[in-house]
Amino acid sequence: MTPPLVTIGICCYNASETISRAINSALNQDWLNLEIIIADDLSADDSREVVLEAIAGKTNAKLITHDNNQGPAGTRNSIIKEAAGEFIAFFDDDDESFSNRVSCQIQYLQNFEERLKTKQIACYASGVRHYENGYKKNLAAIGSKGDEIPNGNKLANYLLLHQKENNWFYGTGTPTCSLMARTETIKNNGSFDPGLRRVEDVDFAIRLAMNGGYFIGTRETLFNQYATEASDKSAEKNLEAEQTLVRKHKQYLTSIGKYYYALHWPKLRYWHFKKNYFKFIIEFLGLFCRHPFSVLPHILATGPRRLIHERKMKKAIFK
Question: What is the C-alpha to C-alpha distance for residues 151 and 156, in angstroms, rounded to an integer?
Answer without folding.
Answer: 8
